C-alpha cells in the first residue's frame, strides 16, 4: 500500500466517522472507495466494519449529554443490537454477497420516509389512543414496545451484514415509534450502531481473520476516530429540522449510490 492510497483511506475514514455520527451512512463512502482501490468486496466490507468501530465510540461519547436518563432504554435495546449484529455478520460470511442487494435501497427508502413523516405518524397514533401524555419511551404500550424491539433487531441484522445507511433506517424507526427528541434519538442510534459494528467486527476477527486487511482497518479506525469527534460537534449543534433534512438528503444519496453500484 502506497502513501497516497493510505492517505485516501484515512481521509475517507474521517468522512465516514463524521457522517455516521451525524446521520449514519459512512459505509457508502468507505466501501466504494475500497472497491475502487481493488479490494475484494467481502474483505472491504469486513475491514471497513472493524475500522468504523472506533468512530462509533467517539461519536457515542460525544453525545453523552443527550444520553443522560436513557440508560434503561439502551439496556433494553442493546441485546437486540448485539444479537442482530452477530446474525448479520454470520450471514455475510455464508450467503451470496448479492442476496440483499435488491432490498437494501428499499430499506433505506423506508427509513427516509419514516424520518420525514415519523413525527406526524406518532402524533396521529397518540391522538387515536387519546393519551397525549404517553410520550416517553418507557410509557409505550406492550405491543409498540415489541414492534420496536423487533425493528431494532432486524436493523441490527442488516447492520451486521452490510451497514450502509443503518443509521438512517434506525432513525426512521425510532422517530416513528417513539416521541423522544431527535438529538437524544441520534445519540441512542450511535450507541446501538456501535454495538452492532463491534460485535460484527469481533465475529469477523474470530470466524474469518483471513478476510481482514489490518492495514485498511487501522487507517479507517484512525480516520473515523477523528471523524466521530467532529461529527458529534456538528450533529449536536444542528436544529431538529436541519438534522432531519440532513438525514433525508443523505438517505436519498445512499439510495442513488446503492442503485448505481448494484
Detailed description of the structure:
This protein is mainly α and 262 residues long. The chain has one domain. It contains ten helices and no strands. α1 packs parallel to α9 and α7 crosses α8. The longest helix is centred in the middle third of the chain and has 27 residues. The protein is globular, with a radius of gyration of 17 Å. The two termini are 27 Å apart. The relative contact order is 0.24.
| Estimated structural class | mainly alpha
Task: Estimate the helix proportion, in percent.
Answer: over 70%
- In one word, what is the shape? globular
Number of domains: 1
Distance, first to last CA: 27 Å
How are helices and strands ordered from N to C?
A: HHHHHHHHHH
Oligomer: single chain
Biggest sheet statistics: none
Number of helices: 10
**Number of E-type strands:** 0
Beta-strand proportion: under 5%
| Overall pLDDT metric | 82
- Provide the gyration radius in Å: 17 Å
Amino acid at each position: 500500500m502506497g502513501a497516497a492510497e493510505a492517505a485516501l483511506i484515512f481521509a475517507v475514514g474521517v468522512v465516514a466517522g463524521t457522517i455516521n455520527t451525524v446521520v449514519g451512512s459512512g459505509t457508502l463512502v468507505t466501501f466504494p472507495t475500497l472497491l475502487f482501490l481493488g479490494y475484494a468486496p467481502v474483505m472491504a466490507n469486513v475491514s471497513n466494519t472493524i475500522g468504523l468501530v472506533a468512530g462509533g465510540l467517539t461519536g457515542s461519547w460525544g453525545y453523552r449529554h443527550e444520553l443522560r436518563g436513557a440508560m434503561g432504554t439502551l439496556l433494553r435495546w442493546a441485546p437486540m443490537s448485539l444479537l442482530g449484529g452477530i446474525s448479520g455478520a454470520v450471514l455475510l460470511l455464508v450467503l451470496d454477497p448479492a442476496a440483499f442487494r435488491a432490498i437494501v435501497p428499499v430499506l433505506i427508502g423506508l427509513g427516509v420516509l419514516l424520518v420525514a413523516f415519523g413525527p406526524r405518524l406518532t402524533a396521529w397514533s397518540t391522538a387515536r389512543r387519546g393519551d397525549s401524555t404517553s410520550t416517553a419511551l418507557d410509557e409505550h404500550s406492550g405491543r409498540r414496545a415489541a414492534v420496536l424491539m423487533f425493528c431494532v433487531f432486524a436493523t441490527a441484522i442488516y447492520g451486521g451484514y452490510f451497514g450502509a445507511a443503518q443509521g438512517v433506517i434506525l432513525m426512521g424507526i425510532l422517530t416513528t415509534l417513539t416521541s423522544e427528541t431527535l438529538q437524544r434519538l441520534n445519540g441512542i442510534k450511535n450507541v446501538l450502531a456501535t454495538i452492532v459494528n463491534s460485535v460484527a467486527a469481533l465475529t469477523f476477527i474470530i470466524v474469518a481473520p483471513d478476510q481482514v486487511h489490518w492495514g485498511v482497518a487501522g487507517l479507517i479506525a484512525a480516520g473515523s476516530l477523528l471523524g466521530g469527534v467532529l461529527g458529534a460537534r456538528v450533529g449536536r449543534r444542528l436544529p431538529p429540522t436541519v438534522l432531519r433534512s440532513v438525514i433525508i438528503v443523505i438517505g436519498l444519496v445512499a439510495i442513488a449510490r446503492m442503485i448505481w453500484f448494484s
